[in-house]
């Protein structure tokens, strides 16, 4: 019985809790995502907790922005690198736009990146195995099969 209690304590001690992002992190993320939008001031952000901040630098959330017609186009998943440089300054970089072509990255790719970083969000079946492999390499629990999409 003592061994079981010690084993449970060991696993509980290893578990990293998700945390909300700080106000400074929100500002950095929102600034970098707004740079890519047609109407940056109209952006509505929906932030999530940072699920495994000690295991990954990928932060994901949702943004709703206006299209060319001035109408909101619906929530879109975004992914950013969120960390600190050598001087300890907070930096954020977007994964949402291809840096060579300037074209938006497909939402299925962004969801795969976010799921690999520990977010429990739907991913296409063809990426599911790789997502769980990436999660295992980072010490993140597997994504449940309920999140697999055709």
Query: How would you characterize the largest beta sheet?
Result: 4 strands, antiparallel
Helix content, binned percent? 25-40%
Q: Biggest sheet, strands in spatial order?
A: 1-2-3-4
Question: With helices defined by DSSP (H or I, 4 residues minimum), what is the helix count?
Answer: 4
End-to-end span in angstroms?
45 Å
**Total beta strand runs:** 6
Order of helices and strands: HHEEEEHEHE
- How many domain regions? 1
Which consecutive residue ranges, at least 5 long each, have pLDDT under 50? Answer: 1-14
Shape: globular
Describe this structure in words.
The protein is globular and about 40 Å long. The protein starts with a helix and ends with a strand. The chain has one domain (19-149). Strand 5 (123-124), helix 4 (125-137) and strand 6 form a beta-alpha-beta unit. The longest helix is centred in the first third of the chain and has 13 residues, at 2-14. Residues 1-14 have low confidence and may be disordered. It has a 4-stranded antiparallel sheet with strand order 1-2-3-4. Strands 5-6 form a two-stranded parallel ribbon. The chain has helices at residues 2-14, 23-34, 107-116, 125-137; strands at residues 44-47, 58-66, 72-84, 90-94, 123-124, 148-149. 22% of the residues are buried. Helix 3 (107-116) runs parallel beside helix 4 (125-137). By secondary structure, the chain is an alpha+beta fold.
